Amino acid sequence: MTSDLQWHAAEATAKRITGNWNKPGEPGGAITLFDSKTLRGFATGGLENLTTATPFSIDSVVRYASVTKHIFATLALLKSDAGLSVNDPLGKHLPQLKAPMAQVTIGQALDMTGGLPDVRETLSLLGVSVYNVSDAEAIMTFLAQDGALNFPAGSEISYSNTGYRLVEEILKQKGILFEDLLQKHIAQPLDIALHAPETWFDIVPNLAPGYWLDTSGWKTALAGLHLSASGSLTGSVRSLSVWLQSLLSQTGPGAGVLKTLTAQRYLHGDIPSAYGLGTTSTQIGPHTVYGHGGSHAGYKAYFLLHPERDAGVALVSNREDTAAYSHALDVMSALLDAPLPPRSHALPDGLYASTAEPYWLKVSNGTASYLGSADNLYQSADADEAITLSAHMPMRLRWDGKAIKGEIGHAPRFFTPVEPNDCLKMVQGRWYHPASKAAFDIEGDKFLMGVGTLRASGQLTSLGAGRLLVELPDGPWKKNFCLYFQGYNVKLISNRSRVLNFRRDECRSSWQPQS
User: Fold this and answer.
1) 471 partner at 20 to 30 Å CA-CA among 38, 84, 492, 507?
2) One domain for residues 203 and 330
3) Residue 296 phi/psi, 5° resolution?
4) Is 244 helix (H, G, I), strand (E, B) or coil?
5) Cβ within 8 Å of residue 88, ≥6 positions away
6) Final residue before a domain boundary, out of 402, 417, 432
7) In a domain, 445, yes or no
8) CA dihedral in degrees (69, 72, 78, 82; nearest 10)?
């Protein structure tokens, strides 16, 4: 039954969101509301192309980014005939992988508990720009060089695209292509235009450009990394909605799919996770909704489904500043007439670090950034406790007057206010990564990486205890990571990549450790 759902209120909320994009010369997006049979409403705003001034519509084609994940998981596990089990270790199918990466199961690779370092983030820490082109074969060679994980598989949850890339490689080595599966089992049966290009430069019919805003105006977005099945799909919000309707109706290509994707997954110790297989679960009042988001340079997307109430919301956008998750939550909240929890300010603003570990937390105006990845904080049932609604970065934290303690990613964490020290003078000079030949320099309070005109400069901030926080521009984003010094070695730590170790280049350094 859908008669008690607030379709008009939800559409009004959607129109308020897209109306903010109706400014001269700005990109935009579209939002749809639907049940299993009917498109119940939609809202659009802004432009799909700033060159032609074409308005954004529900048929505008965009990059779905990580919304791809639930579709790939569906095809790989249910339609590929590859004989994959979620309990198979990756190394069973990819013998070139080293332990412990080879021991991560396919299920862990897809449910974000595998500890797999994210390829994009790792390459970024090596100085490879978002614009630099990397092909699939070279990436697989790179992944096979070192089997290190961000954390022991099953011990916590943290977002990574690498698991989807690796499972796609398993299919490729069996002669099975994602695009072929997509056309045979979803696009053709539903008569919708979905494609899975391998690179940003492949021609996609009617693809709207993505845009990001810098100090001089809107810029066309670009990314060089091989896309992979972690985020390669393109299509319109109408096409996405048709597929999601088949999930709600459990007919045709969507028959039985949600049961598989949303089945409860667990970390070690039987800790339940809100992340399934390419899907997440979120509580809005008494309601459990399922969905997933996507973020590419210049593109944002999100969908939420309420199977019990036969209702869904989908959003796509070609502007980098779109808060897709928040917008989707607001529309679904209006549809269910169930308010979201109030935002929390229980944690004092400031910069915090853990003791004798390379972990840090920045709190600012009700937002928490853990290892460089930010999420909104909300009140739990206990007003003194701050939580996120994110399945891939769940937080449950409180301030005890001296420290912030609780859980992030289901792992216990304890942070105290940063006490800066003067370690900068002891780490001046060059540091290098032998396997990749990458290097960076510390000169004064600056972090320098790259060559020639591509040399980037970042600001260094002390986190105390031999740790420095780096903020460095990278195209439309700013990347934040920690330098964790231990004698002649330094570990580079970000939320999605914690495996790189650089060494001191003694010939290019101005300080030597005391013997």
Assistant:
1) 507
2) yes
3) -115, 165
4) helix
5) 105, 106
6) 417
7) yes
8) -130
**Cα 279–284–290 angle (5° rounding)?**
15
Number of structural domains, the chain?
4
Amino acid in position 376: N
Judge whether 233 and 192 are in contact, CB under 8 Å.
Answer: no
DSSP 292-352: EEEEETTEEEEEEEEGGGTEEEEEEESBTT--HHHHHHHHHHHHHT-PPPPB---SPSEEE
Note whether 368 and 395 are within 8 A (CB): yes
Looking up residue 316, the CATH number of its domain turns out to be 3.40.710.10
Q: Which of 417, 438, 471 is the last residue of a domain?
A: 417
Q: Both 243 and 285 in a single domain?
A: yes
Q: Which residues make beta-bridge pairs with 474?
A: 477
505: exposed, middle or buried (C-beta count within 10 Å: 0-12, 13-18, 19+)?
Answer: middle
- Cα separation of 455 and 449, whole Å? 6
Q: Are residues 375 and 474 in the same domain?
A: no
220 and 327, same domain (yes or no): yes
Residues 300 and 405 in one domain: no
Domain extent at residue 461: 423-509
Q: Are residues 322 and 238 in the same domain?
A: yes
Q: What H or E segment, with its residue span, contains residue 443?
A: strand 438-443
Indicate whether 59 and 207 sit together in one domain. Answer: yes
- Among all chains, which residue has been given the structure tokens 């989707």? 328
Tokens in use for 261? 């994707």
CATH number at residue 504: 2.40.128.210
Statement to judge: residues 302 and 356 lie in one domain: no
Q: Is 255 helix (H, G, I), strand (E, B) or coil?
A: coil
Q: Residue 252 burial (CB < 10 Å; 0-12/13-18/19+)? A: middle
Dihedral sign computed on CA atoms, order 504, 506, 511, 515 = positive
Tens-digit pLDDT profile for residues 191-242: 999 999 999 999 999 999 999 999 999 999 999 999 999 999 999 999 999 9
Q: Is the peptide bond before 100 cis (omega within 30 degrees of 0)?
A: yes
- Does 274 map to a domain? yes
- Which secondary-structure segment (H or E) carries 266? strand 265-267
- Tell me the Ramachandran region of residue 401: left when phi exceeds 0, alpha when psi lies from -120 to 50, beta otherwise: left
Q: What is the tens place of the pLDDT at every residue in 145-197?
A: 999 999 999 999 999 999 999 999 999 999 999 999 999 999 999 999 999 99
Q: Is residue 72 part of a domain?
A: no
Domain presence at residue 344? no
